[in-house]
Amino acid sequence: MIGFARTDRSALGQWWWTVDRWTLAAVIALMFVGAILVLAASPAVATRIGLDSFYLVRHHYMMLPAAAAVLIAVSVLTPRQIRRLGVVLFFFFLALTAMTLGSGMEIKGATRWISVGPLSLQPSEFLKPCFAIFTAWMFALQRTEVPGQRIPGNLISIGAYLATVAILIKQPDLGMTVVITATWAAQFFVAGLPIFWVALIVGCGVAGLIGAYFMLPHVTDRVNQFLDPSTGDTYQIDRALEAFSHGGLIGQGPGGGTVKLNLPDAHADFVFAVAGEEFGMVVCTLIVGLFAFIVLRSLLRMLGETNLFVLLATTGLVTSFGLQAVVNMASTLHLMPTKGMTLPFISYGGSSIVAIALGVGMLLALTRKRFPGSQDI
Predict the structure, then answer these.
(1) Which residues are listed as membrane-spanning (predicted)?
(2) Which range, 153-167, 193-207, 258-272, is most confident?
């Protein structure tokens, strides 16, 4: 067992015997599948944009060890340390996300990135898991009985949500807004939100989506193209569906795909289509199964959890992680309007894969076994 005995009292030794090794194995499997798919999809994209064929592959492979290091380092922490880390990073990345509005890099009409040396960083990717930690703490504080003290955790979480969403819409980034909203709503519901407020939040969410359709031109175009393909350019989604058709049950084999040669975002937003063409429905089903396993396994670990913060934080992190995967795969399969959102651990990633590792590391830390009466919560 990688050299750790049950009597090992070191931090890593205790981590190994308390962490959910099944979830950890599923995450490693996703990273491995992602490494293969990036190798399959990226050379064609790199050549098309004038780079060395393996430039994107090398960059992704250089970021994988960093992501793995972040994941392990964060998963070793106690729930109390996760809470402190999440709160500090929430304000830090909220500030960086706000900075993109004034000094961000504009890519495809959106200002979501800032330059950090030779790298481009999307702060909202890091903000997403930290937001789940911060709001979980606020909801938990609302229900903490402290003599002579009443902390308005619900109001603070609402303020944090509105501030975050306002910045994201301004960028604009509707996809991230939807994920943040779903995360916050799921936590609020689990925290004991009355059914009236549940209905009100759902109504506001529907109204927000309708408003986005009428006020944001790029949203209007994508929804119209989804409902009536003849109204716009559906080149990418047509090629993605063609890739799945070519792949069939077992695929064309590694490197045998041809659609990726003409699919602009084959390495990122549409990497699932590359998996479909080269490895077929069998591997695509395996990928879906790995995501479902991580989500369900993490929720099952919460059965009997007595600490409200841990329960709410896990709910938020799982919702964020699972929804991002669903949005990417559903849009690739033309089950919903296309949205520029990567497939966690599978798509080519620079800083984004480190951000995903941060969130999953927090999830692993919170779902570790704890002994009754532990003070590290």
Answers:
(1) 21-41, 61-78, 85-105, 153-169, 196-216, 279-296, 308-326, 346-366
(2) 153-167
